[in-house]
Structure formats: structure tokens, C-alpha cells
Amino acid sequence: MTTARVLIVEDDPIQAERYAMDLDGFDLRVASAGAEALSVVASFLPDLVVLDVRLPDMNGLDVLRRLRADGIPSSVIIVTSHGSVNMAVEAMQAGANDFLVKPFTAERLLVTVRNILENQRLSRQVQQLTQELGVTTGAVGFFGFTGGSPIMRGVYRTIEAAAPSKATVFITGESGTGKELCAEAIHRASPRAKGPFVAVNCAAIPQDLMESELFGHVKGAFTGATGTRDGAASRAHGGTLFLDEICEMDINLQSKLLRFLQTGTVQKVGGDGPEKVDIRVVCATNRDPLVEVEEGRFREDLYYRLHVIPIQLPPLRERPGDALEIARTLLGRMVKEEEKSFSHFAKDAEVVISAYPWPGNVRQLENCLRNAVVLHDGDELTLAMLPPPLNTFSPKAGAMLAGGVPVAAPATDGGRGIVSDDTTIRPLWQVEKETIERAISLCSGNIPKAAALLEISPSTIYRKKVSWENAEAV
Predict the structure, then answer these.
(1) Structural class in CATH, domain 152-314
(2) How far apart (Å, rounded) are the C-alpha atoms in residues 265 and 378?
(3) In this structure, which topology does domain 5-130 adopt according to CATH?
(4) SMART domains, per this entry (predicted)?
(5) DSSP letter at 314?
């Protein structure tokens, strides 16, 4: 059995020595700075990184973000002497697996490390078993989200950490990234899941009706108020109120929203007195809220009242591998809704879906697939069936421009790398290993760039490198 590899990143030599003693029995390496840690990770490929936040050359969270951006599959435990809710949220959102606050006992460290490594082992066993049985496990999902990219796993961890609290969550992200889906996930993962989820789009309701929509009104309060009506805040009692496009709210109404958040009471338009409500507020915007504050369109005190737990949803172009997973999930749903017979995508369609930058994010992807499913039929959805600009998009040209290094493919059978130039049939893993190593060499050791040009995830390369090393060690 291979000994788990653990990298300790700690600038205090006494602390580093203590961690090493606590973790005796593992294959250990120690780094005292962020740049050194990144260098060690590239060669050592640890299963787990114990990462201190305060390092002499850079912040530990920046090291973590680099690891996740490069697709390195190592689990990470963040260690800090300044524990806070905001720090924990930021660490989980950046992709940490756990969070320890100094001082902690040797037993706590050891239990945390063992639990994470055990989860890794079980995940590998499940993956190996499903591959041996030829079972398709389906896309990674989380409360309606689809996608298992490292950056989205960080979002899932943040949602899980934030859900049990009553603290206000502020979701930001481009249009089409799934902000309402995120709000629903927070609600469904929280103790309020059995209560109502009430969504209000602040951009879709006329400003003169927004106060009534939020807080309700009594009969005769204004022209057209023919009866008493509860507002969204009252209807969300015991559950979650989601304020979408919060930065579109009129500046005059923002003061009333602030008072509501501070007192937990609502007063209907034309009403005599306040009513107590128990709700959790989640809000979202596709704008930069700080810019809105600076330009006077959004109250600064309201911003800080709402911006307790921030969640930044990444655009689809920054989620490697997720576009195709989402497309497959959507296709399965759409063929049922439209009563069509599509069962899968053609290879050329999959390549384009994976490589296209999707400026409109998931909403654009969904609309394109709906177009193709409605206007065509068949067992296989091909590239020609997709609407413009997808059916004319050239992923190879895009890869050349973005990567800057052409990676020539070996002579293969249908692009699968089974037959070499001299037609001698060799094991697939050997051809795959040579192709990957050549791509890394052509990219001057830059694994993420090599992965992009090979159209695979960087984490796939890292996993394969570990498996090759383990095979050679046997």
C-alpha cells in the first residue's frame, strides 16, 4: 500500500517540526514559503497540503487558489491563527477541504488528515469500480447545479458552510451563471428548507410598486389597492427571501429595506404598525456592487449589511469540463420535454461545446440546445444541428491562439492513439503517456496549458502522473 504524501507549508520551523511529529508515518515534505510550496507541489504531487495562511512571500489562500486554478487534485487544510466566519467562508470558497484554527491538538490535526485521506481513498475505489463495471456515474451535481470543476466545488463548500447560518448571503456573477439557483441551494441546504422560498426580481417590478411588493399594503392605501395584501417579506416568514438584481432597487426604498433588515419587522403601505417576521435574506446582482456604491446608486450602509457572506459565481468559461456535463444533463431533460429521440452528442459537437467561451453562460448554452432539439431529430445531436455561432466555431484555432503552442497528435486510429506511426499496436496507456509527456514538454512544463491543448482537465494529467509513478514503484 502506498504511503500518503503530505506537504506541510509553514514558515515557523518549530510549528513545522511539530506538525511533522504529529504526522509521523506519512511521506512528508516541508515548505516555508508560498513559492517554494508551489514548486514542491509540481514535483511531489502531494495527496494533502497542510497550508498556513500567513506566509512570508504570499497569502496561503493565494497559494490555494493557484492550486485550484491549475487543476491540482491535492486536498488542502487551511491553518490560521485568525479564525473567523469570513476567513472560513473565503477558504472554503477558494477550494479548501477543511479549516483549522490555532492552537489545535495533535489529535485534531491527525483526525482531520485521516478523514480527508479516507474520503480520497473511498472516492478512488468508487471511480475504479464504476470504470471496471462500465457504469456511467453521471455529472457531479449539487442542489440543482451541475459540474464538478474545482472552482464549482469551492462554491458548493461555501454554500454548505453558509446554509446553517441566518447570515445574509450576497451572490454576484455574470448574467446566466445561476444566481437564483444558488439562492435556492442555500435555502434547500438550510434548516429553513421546509419553509417558503420567495423570490423578488427588483429589476422586473416598477419602482412605485416595489415597496408594496416587498412589504404589502392595506386596503385603500393607494389607487388600485382593493384589498389587504401581504408582501414578499411576510410570505417568506420561516423561510428565505431572495432579492434578485438588488442593485436595481430605487435608492429611496433602500433605506426602508435597511430598516427592515435591522429590526426584522415590516410595515404594510398604509398600515398602522410593524409586524415581526423571521426570514433569511439572500440577494444577488450581475453588477459590481462596490462600483454602484462609489457612484451613489447603492447605499454603503446597506451594502455592508447585506455583504456578510459573499459568493462569487464563476462564468462558464472558467469552469473546465462543466459545459459538456451541463449540456448532457440538459439534453436528457429536453428530449423528454420535447418528445425527441436524441441520446447523445456527436464527437465534434462535444469538442465545440467544451471549447466555446459561452459569453451568455449557462442560459446561452440552454437556449442553443433548446434550438437544436426543437428544430432537429435523430439519435445523435451533431455540430451541424447547433445554431450559429457554434456550428462555425473552430476550437482548434481557438486553442492555438490561446495556448500559443501547437501540439501535433501522433498517427492514430480515429484520434484514439491506438496505432503508432509504424502500425505496431502498443498498449493504449503507453501511447497516452507519451502523448501527454510530449505535450507537457512542448508547453515548457506548463501542465494547465498542455491540458487545454489536449482538451482534458489538468487534474486528469496529475492523476495519471501519480498512477504512472505508483506503477513504476511496484
Answers:
(1) alpha beta
(2) 56
(3) Rossmann fold (3.40.50)
(4) AAA (SM00382), REC (SM00448)
(5) P
Distance CA 251, CA 471 (A): 64
Least confident of 114-128, 178-192, 253-267, 316-330: 114-128
Q: Look up the pTM and report it.
A: 0.62
- The residues that bridge with 21 in the sheet, in sequence order, are none
**80 vs 102: CA distance, rounded Å:** 6
Report how far apart, in Å, the C-alpha atoms of 2 and of each of 21, 429, 445, 465, 467 are. Answer: 20, 21, 26, 15, 11
* Signed CA dihedral, 294, 297, 302, 308: sign only: negative
Other residues' Cβ atoms within 10 Å of the Cβ of residue 331:
19
pLDDT tens, residue by residue, 161-179? 899 999 999 999 999 999 9
Q: 3-state DSSP helix/strand/coil percent for the chain, to nearest 5? A: 50, 15, 35
Q: Which three cell numbers stand for residue 373?
A: 432539439
pLDDT tens sequence across 441-468:
787 777 767 777 777 767 678 777 776 7
Cβ neighbourhood burial of 466 (10 Å; 0-12, 13-18, 19+):
middle
